[in-house]
Amino acid sequence: MQQQEIHKFLLNYFMANECPIVTNHPGYLDVQLTIEMDKELMNRPFYWHYLEKTGGIPNPMRLTLITNQKAAPENLRGETIHFGSPRLHQVFESTKNLARYIRLYENHGNSAVQTPLLPWLCMNVKISYQCDRKRDIFKSIGLQLINGKMVEDFHNYLLKISLTPKIPDYSFTLSPLVKPKSGMIRIENYLKSVIENDDHTWADEAKIRWEKDLELLNHFYEDIEDENESYETEKQALKDQYEPRIHISFINGGLFYLTEKAI
Amino acid sequence: MNVEIEFDSSWQDDFLHKIDHDGPWGNWELFKLAIDIENHLVVPEFEGLQAPKHLPNLTPLPHQLETAKQVVENMNGKAILADEVGLGKTIEAGLILKEYMIRGLVKKVLILVPASLVTQWAQELNSKFYIPAVTQRKSYVWEQCDVVVSSIDTAKRNPHREIIYKQDYDLIIIDEAHKLKNNKTKNYEFVQNLKKKFCLLLTATPIQNRIEEIFNLVSLLKPGHLGNETVFYEKYKRDSRSLNDDQHLKELVNKVMIRNRRADTGIEWTKRHVETIPIEFTKSERDLYDSILELKNEGDWVQTSSFSVMTLQREACSSREAVFYTLKNMLLKKENPTQAYQEQINFLIKKVETVEQNSKAVKALELIQKINDKVIIFTEYRATQLYLQWYLKQHGISSVPFRGGFKRGKKDWMRELFQKHAQVLIATEAGGEGINLQFCNHIINFDLPWNPMRLEQRIGRIHRLGQEKDVMIYNFAIKNTVEEHILKLLYEKIDLFEKVIGELDDILTKLEFGNIEDHIMDIFGDSCSEGEMRIKMENLSSMIEFAQNMKKGESHAAAGNS
């Protein structure tokens, strides 16, 4: 993430959370937090607890986030934000938490005829291949809940469609034939089959490394009969280190009601 | 494929609940942002380093990046980092740690370092690497914090020990790991029983010396890598130096150890210039020194060990204050002192009182005024330190004291004062470790330590990465004293001062005759005559020279080997 991207991201984040932007300067952002966002980000539960008990006037904080030190005024006080900074990662986490599930309708603009909207289940996940090393794959899957059609890269399709949280006029939704719950299972199975067809030399190689080290370990403890405790510990450590694992974690997902031609 | 797939389904019920109750639903803008973030955080390849792009304010040197890459890609995260002093092992360790944290392979981390470096480690990890490392102060820290820095001496003791063994650490980092070369020690046993998934051992002292030490250290990191004990010692004699002859063993060790040498890194180092400044005692100073020297021949004193005499002698070369302080202590601490003993000491105290000026201090003042820039003065004695501070103040020169015993905060404060306000920093020996003062390039060795390593550490405070100017070292030695002997016979002979950083520890570990200080003590304390002393000293310096030459030959042979 480049500094401009970070700046843009922060701006979007605070605007989406309805925080007034006091200053939007190329070098920094000055944001007035709302009460909700103060509670979300500033980590001062005692203050809010005290305020609620005493009924005082809430005074949410103002945040100055410097995204480009060179462009920002010299004596500006604020937090310098970059890709590794804890504040940015806190905002990342918060973003993911605040928008885990969603439901949207296509804003089709047909005002003359009644337009049917088809339900889609979307799941965005991260697949991680892990041994003593790791790599991730991002997947966005869409499943149409009427005919069971499955689409990869679903998120990119959605980005091209105008969406709205309220059902547009002259629209009606079709009830899903596939229940969301079984939809989820279908997607899960699909993901598993994709993974199974992938190349897994990485896992085989990790197992070879594991076995090699295990052999060494066994050899080391050959002559030592007591003291088996540290042997067991070491053995477990090797397992934790090398054992290949695949993990599918959920990022976010939702229901989308789209016109027939949308996808 | 026979890898199990874990599918995180904890969210499903949550999602279904929202569908049933029609919300509340998230915001589309945030939903899109969350995916943007994921796309940025995804680690697309097994290979390569992610950490540098998360650390915009840190510019690692090429050899540091290469080391981190090696450890992650080819050593499976278990390595001995044995760079020569001053090449930034901490940075390498930080990079590796950060890399594993970004990849989500490491969460819980234990960092064991010498007590004096605990705070510094935690600070560096926080400020340079944005890793929320916490120093262990309360016992709940072990359980509640993910990245903990502690001294090994604290960690190995109960109740800490038990709590630590219960934690499931992903990565363990041990600084100054050469202290774990003996497998009979408590520290060794403690570390051996730790679960080490990923593990980094940091050491500046090369362990290519005794085969036993290598075996112990490597076995700690990766048991069995060098075979088991019986087989190993059947093949290699316990005390042999055959590591360097045995190509096979060398290769094995290189699989788990990375040692960058200064010469290979291509970093330009500034030079060291050394000037020895001989100083004459005044008559009264000489009188005091000689009176102390005479004690050696008196019966009562021999029993109180030659140590005291030797100490007094060295102190007399530093300041009368230092001598006085020791004398006073000798009076107070001695149980049932004899009449003669008391008289003897009071006699010396009288001598101390007659000394009216400190010749070294006069010279130091002159030098500082001439340099007209920041200067660090090192002395072995606190009394001298206090005196110098007072003396310089009398002449309008601002100075700050520095001692090893200062708390971290005070150390940093003093360093800051020195950098911004004072011209001179006066440090005692213990203050030499764990502080970097590369903004200054003049050192005055007001008196000389007997351990060359300590001298190297003094110089290392300013001659390190980041020093832009040549380093000037001024050694004060009083003519015709023990001090001059040390300087002439030991330091100058082995060219100590001109050495590149880190070369000395290489050399000293080659010599297997134990603590150099003990030898010197022995030479000066037990020699009956000047002649005997001279011969013994020459012996010692020849041995060091020998080791030096040995090393030279070896580095030719080892050229092209990492």
What does this structure look like?
The complex is a heterodimer of chains A (263) and B (562). By secondary structure, chain A is an alpha/beta fold. Chain A has 3 domains: 3-98, no CATH class; 103-200 and 247-258, no CATH class; 201-243. Chain A contains 8 helices and 11 strands. In chain A, the strands form 2 sheets. In chain A, strands 5, 6, 7, 8, 9, 10 and 11 form a 7-stranded mixed sheet that branches. In chain A, helix 7 runs antiparallel to helix 8. The radius of gyration of chain A is 26 Å and the shape is extended. The two termini of chain A are 30 Å apart. Chain B is of the alpha/beta class and 562 residues long. Chain B folds into 3 domains: 51-265, Rossmann fold (3-Layer(aba) Sandwich); 272-277 and 359-376 and 391-557, 3-Layer(aba) Sandwich (Rossmann fold), CATH 3.40.50.300; 279-354. Chain B is 51% helix and 12% strand. In chain B, strands 4-5-3-6-7-2-8 form a 7-stranded parallel sheet. In chain B, strand 13, helix 23 and strand 14 form a beta-alpha-beta unit. In chain B, helix 4 (62-73) crosses helix 5 (89-102). Chain B is elongated and about 100 Å long. Chain B starts with a strand and ends in a 5-residue tail after the last helix. The chains are: A alpha/beta (263), B alpha/beta (562).
